[in-house]
Design a protein that fits this description.
binds magnesium ion; single chain; four-stranded antiparallel β-sheet; alpha/beta; 14 helices; 322 residues; binds adenosine-5'-triphosphate
Amino acid sequence: MLFLTGAALVSYYGVWGVSPGDVVMLSAFLTTLTNSTTTLAGLAPVITKGLESVRSVGEVLQAPELEDNEGKAPLDSLRGAVEFQGVGYVYEDAGRPAVRDFSLSVAPGETIALVGASGAGKSTVLSLVIGFIRPTSGRLLLDGTDMNTLDLRTYRRFVSVVPQESILFDGTVRENVAYGMDDADADEGTVRAALRDANALEFVDRLPHGLDTLVGEHGARLSGGQRQRLAIARALIRNPRVLILDEATSALDTQSEALVQQALARLVRGRTTFVVAHRLSTIRGADRIVVMGDGAVREIGSHEELMRRGGMYTALQGGQLA
Ligand SMILES: Nc1ncnc2c1ncn2[C@@H]1O[C@H](COP(=O)(O)OP(=O)(O)OP(=O)(O)O)[C@@H](O)[C@H]1O
Ligand SMILES: [Mg+2]
C-alpha cells in the first residue's frame, strides 16, 4: 500500500511540480510511520483512497501537518549542526509524550546511533530531525537557528532519508537513482558515480540494459541488498549534509550485508547522521550512541564507554538491539 503511494506520487511529479526530493522524503516518512494515523491525519484518506481522489500532491505536501513555511527564512547552506534543547513531543490523542526533555547537541559530521526498546521514541526523533513533526515543547536548532523559523523545504534539500524498506518504483535504475535529486536531469556520470559509491555499479552493469533496466514494481526484480544499495545511491546523489537512516532489520546474506555496510559507511562520512541502528557493527561505528528509554535519553557515549558503565546499554546487548 505504502509502496503504491510512493509510486503514485512519482507519477504525479511531472504534473504537480513537487520536487523528487519531497517525494523521497514523503515516501520515506510514510514507511517509517506504518502505525501512525495521527501525524498523517491529512494524508490518511489519501493513503486509503489512492491519490486519484486528491486534487494535487502539492496540496498534500503542503498540508499543515507537514508544512507551514509562510514567511519563514530560507536556508541557503547548512553545516549540519543539530541541537535538541529539552525537546518534547506528544502525538495527538496520545496520553503520554513519545519524546521527553530530549537534549543533544550534534556537531556537523557526527554520527549518532539511536538505540532502545520498541516504543522508546527513536523514530519520533528521526521525524523531528526531518521536520515532519515539530517539537511540542523545547527547541530544535539547525546551525544554531530555531527550526521553527526556517523554511523547511529549503532545509530538506540538504537532507537524505534511507528508510528501512527502500522505495523503488517501476522505472529504470537511472530514474530510481536520479529521482533523489531535485534536478531531475542527472547526467549519466553523476548517476554512475553515486552507484559506484553505493557498491551498486557492478551489479547494475551486469543487468540486461544496465542503467536503463526496469527494476519491476517496487524493485521486485532486484534482491533486498540490491534495492538497499540503490536507495543508498539515491541518498548519495543528493550529497546531503544531514542523513537519516532507519537501518533495516531484515537479514541479508553475508556478502550483500558486507556490501551494504560498506556503502553505508561511505554515505555517513562527513555528514551529520542519525541512525536507528540494529546491527552492532553500525552502533560501534557511531561517534556517540544515545540509549533511549520511554522517550528520554538514558545514556550517551561511545560503545566502550557505555559497556564500561554497565547500565542500560549493556542490558540491551542482551537482546533488544538486534
Ligand atoms: N502516530 C502516532 N500516534 C500516536 N502515538 C504514536 C505515533 N507514533 C508513535 N507513537 C507512540 O510514540 C512512542 C514512541 O514511538 P516511536 O515510533 O518513536 O518508537 P521507536 O523507538 O521508533 O520504536 P520501534 O523500535 O518499535 O520502531 C510509542 O509509545 C508509540 O506508540
Ligand atoms: Mg521506530
